[in-house]
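dumping this here so i dont lose it
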């Protein structure tokens, strides 16, 4: 967990990852935005998540807002460790 902790230091980044974790299913990008997250910060968080292998994104061919986002097993373990360590 410590190797990623400094990377995902923003409160909103942690909340976005926890939102994905507690949904227990893949989410459409537009539904995550509807929950009140800033789209730019959401995309930055997802970009970092892709870089570290924490999220998987299946891009929709014609409408990027209908892209499907889910946590990988590595991402689930990361969020569980965050929760265990009481990080946000």
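and the seq i came up w/
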């Amino acid at each position: 967990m410590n190797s990623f902790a400094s990377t995902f230091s923003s409160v909103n980044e942690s909340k976005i990852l926890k939102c994905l974790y507690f949904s227990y299913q893949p989410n459409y990008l537009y539904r995550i935005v509807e929950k009140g997250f800033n789209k730019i910060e959401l995309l930055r968080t997802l970009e970092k998540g892709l870089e570290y292998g924490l999220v998987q994104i299946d891009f929709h061919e014609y409408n990027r807002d209908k892209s499907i986002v889910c946590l990988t097993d590595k991402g689930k373990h990361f969020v569980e460790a965050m929760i265990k360590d009481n990080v946000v």
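Helices lie at 2-5, 11-23, 29-34, 39-52, 73-84.
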